[in-house]
Design a protein that fits this description.
- It contains seven helices and nine strands; from the N terminus they run αββαβαβαβαββαββα.
- It is of the alpha/beta class.
- It has a single domain, classed as Rossmann fold, CATH 3.40.50.12780.
- The strands form three sheets. Strands 4-3-5-6-7 form a five-stranded parallel sheet, sandwiched between helices.
- β1 and β2 form a beta hairpin.
- The longest helix has 17 residues.
- The model has no long low-confidence stretch (mean pLDDT 92).
Length: 206
């Protein structure tokens, strides 16, 4: 038996996630895009777009491109969104990591996802170094704040042009979150740009 919703079908636009979020008519340049409740910092859509472009250009200069995996081990913060969209607009994939995980748990995800680079805070840098070593992979570490001996987002940010990238929203994976591992080791969940855009449209009623 087939059950159908009483509501009309949702028309999902054929857009990349970043184009959908930052290119929306609702994303007026001077409107607040992000507000950090702990610091009071406000990022307008104009500022968010600028930061995303500069970080994306810096990541591209480090060799991040289409289909590469970047790990993101950050608490809720404006930098989370900046890095998220910077990676997404390059056609790369993010694997989001719980900052509360142990170094061994992080190492498993880094290895399983074939991560090429990880972004974390200075407070997490020591644990991330242990995880990278345990993963037995050559993974670049970038921190959102200044950390001795490690590149920071500020240091890699660039005004350079972004590489031309063709993103297929239906098939290109934008996020690779990991399951809780209830029945075994955590497993990656492949979410395409279309998956996440559809979810946003459902959640926001667009």
């Amino acid at each position: 038996m087939i059950f159908r919703s009483p509501h009309p079908d949702v028309d999902i636009p054929a857009q990349s996630l970043t184009d959908f979020v930052l290119g929306s008519p609702r994303a007026r340049p001077e409107s607040a895009a992000l507000v950090d409740a702990s610091t009071g910092q406000v990022l307008t859509y104009r500022e968010l777009r600028q930061q995303v472009k500069r970080v994306a250009s810096g990541l591209a200069a480090l060799g991040i491109g289409k289909a590469d995996v970047v790990a993101l081990c950050l608490p809720n913060s404006p930098e989370f969104a900046v890095v998220f969209h910077a990676v997404a607009c390059l056609g790369a994939t993010l694997t989001t990591m719980n900052p509360a995980n142990t170094a061994q748990e992080l190492a498993h995800q880094l290895g399983d996802s074939s991560a090429k680079l990880i972004v974390c805070t200075a407070a997490l840098a020591d644990k991330v170094r242990v995880a990278v070593e345990a993963s037995d992979r050559a993974i670049e570490i970038v921190t959102t704040d200044e950390t001795p001996g490690v590149r920071s987002l500020h240091s890699i940010a660039s005004e350079g042009d972004l590489p031309a990238v063709t993103i297929n929203p239906d098939s290109d994976v934008v996020v690779l979150p990991y399951s809780s591992g209830t029945t075994g080791l955590p497993k990656g969940v492949m979410l395409t740009h279309r998956n996440v855009v559809a979810n946003l449209m459902h959640r926001t009623g667009l």
